[in-house]
Amino acid sequence: MKEAIFSDLDGTLLDHKTYSYVKAKKSINLIKRKKIPLVFCTSKTRAEVEFYRKKLGIKDPFISENGGAIFIPRNYFDFRYKCKKGKYNIIEVGVGYQELQKIVDKIKRKGIKIITFKDLTAKEVAKDAGLKLERARLAKKREYDVVFKVNKKDIKKIEKIVKKNKLKLLKGGRYYHINKSDKGKAVRILTKMLKKKIGKIKTIGFGDSENDFDMLDNVDVPYLVKRPNNKYKSKRYNKANGIGPVGFNKVILEVLK
């Protein structure tokens, strides 16, 4: 039985502070040698994921912005399916950014101080997130997910507004997110398609934060890597013995050896 791997990026495949994948490079090379699908399932934008796919030489589909959309390279699947066509075949799971921005405007009218990436310049995003300027510009190119910071005391108020508008509030490694996306639904859709392409597969998932739980709940073998504080975000799921990419690397080398 062949494996298919779904992995978060920030804090999982990438180091939490430096955004480096070096500590997972050995396992990534093994995945590529064995021609195992490696699907990035992340809160990052399409533009950000493209940067890492190019760096790592990954040519499999990916899931952006907490399940907002599935981006499938053209001709990756040899069967027909419903999608938006362009540079990629796109299956949209969430709603567009403009729709989400209306909810942000409602929150602000309630007097709640919420700061989104749209409110910040690329330089300010770079400083706040510890990103290089060019990658901060890519992080601002959001299509399906609003990233924001807010005082913790206001989270309950925001959650109430978000739920009233039938949207989701998620907590990531650094920021909160508002969307109508679903990593779990995106994983289920893509898994079904991979099975049609490959045959019977075992799906393995890796994450580090609460916004990865939907993904982990929809793979056969789910793993949590350690957070920078050397702790796990949940008592559920299998545990990868290492922080971020170190944990990812250990599990992959053991599972695929």
Structural class: alpha/beta
* CATH topology title of the largest domain: Rossmann fold
Secondary-structure element pattern, one letter each: EHEHEEEEHEHHEHEEHEHEEH
Main sheet: strand order: 2-1-11-12-13
The geometry reads as: globular
Going by CATH, the homologous superfamily of the largest domain would be HAD superfamily/HAD-like
Could you list the spans in which at least 5 consecutive residues all have pLDDT below 50?
none
Radius of gyration: 18 Å
Gap between N and C termini: 14 Å
- CATH architecture descriptor of the largest domain: 3-Layer(aba) Sandwich
Helix content: 25-40%
Verbal overview:
By secondary structure, the protein is of the alpha/beta class. It folds into two domains: 167 residues, Rossmann fold (3-Layer(aba) Sandwich); 83 residues, 2-Layer Sandwich (Threonyl-tRNA Synthetase, Chain A, domain 2), CATH 3.30.980.20. Helices cover 35% and strands 23% of the residues. It contains nine helices and 13 strands. The protein has a five-stranded parallel sheet with strand order 2-1-11-12-13. Strands 3-4-6-5 form a four-stranded antiparallel sheet, covered by helices on one side. A hairpin with a 2-residue loop joins strand 5 and strand 6. Helix 1 runs parallel beside helix 9 and helix 4 crosses helix 5. The protein starts with a strand and ends with a helix. The model has no long low-confidence stretch (mean pLDDT 95).
